[in-house]
């Protein structure tokens, strides 16, 4: 029972912390908006008008120059160098090399194990044939041994 109450206490602390976090998430952005500077928008007193110069021509020239600079900057950003291409594609290249290397390693290991298994199988077959031949020689009388050998020689030439 004590362990159960201890677990409930831990869950209560976690829920209280989560609620506090949610309250902070709402409160902090609201408090940041409360202190925005609005004093520059209000004009106090009468405003004197300044003599107007041909501002539109100057503003047009400045805007055109600004657009030219932005176009040059965008062109320079959109022309990747060899280093930029390598930096953005190095992860793809490395992962491809790792996958291919792992595949080659697995294939070589598989072929080596297969060759060893075939070699072991041939060795076991040779041992079993040798034991079979030795047991025939030991257990049979001389005439049966000779007859069995004659049959096996005929099998070699015929079949």
Give the biggest beta sheet. Answer: none
Q: Please compute the radius of gyration using only Cα atoms.
A: 46 Å
Estimate the helix proportion, in percent.
over 70%
The run of helices and strands is HHHH
Q: Mean pLDDT, as a whole number?
A: 76
What structural class is derived from the secondary structure elements?
mainly alpha
| CA distance, first residue to last residue | 84 Å
Give structural notes.
With 159 residues, the chain is mostly helical. The protein has a domain at 100-159. The chain is 83% helix and 0% strand. The longest helix has 58 residues, at 82-139. The mean pLDDT is 76.
Give a brief outline of the structure:
By secondary structure, the chain is mainly alpha-helical. 83% of the residues lie in helices and 0% in strands. The chain is built from four helices and no strands.
């Amino acid at each position: 029972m004590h362990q159960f109450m201890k677990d409930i206490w831990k869950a209560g602390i976690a829920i209280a912390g989560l609620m506090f976090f949610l309250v902070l998430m709402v409160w902090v952005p609201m408090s940041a908006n409360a202190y925005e500077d609005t004093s520059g928008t209000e004009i106090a007193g009468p405003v004197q008008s300044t003599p107007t110069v041909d501002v539109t021509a100057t503003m047009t020239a400045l805007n055109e120059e600004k657009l030219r600079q932005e176009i040059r900057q965008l062109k320079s950003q959109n022309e990747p160098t060899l280093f930029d291409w390598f930096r953005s594609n190095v992860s793809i290249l490395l992962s491809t090399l790792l996958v291919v290397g792992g595949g080659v390693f697995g294939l070589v290991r598989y072929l080596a194990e297969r060759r060893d298994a075939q070699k072991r199988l041939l060795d076991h077959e040779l041992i079993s044939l040798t034991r079979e031949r030795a047991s025939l020689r030991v257990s049979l009388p001389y005439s049966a041994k000779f007859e069995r050998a004659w049959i096996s020689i005929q099998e070699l030439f015929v079949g």
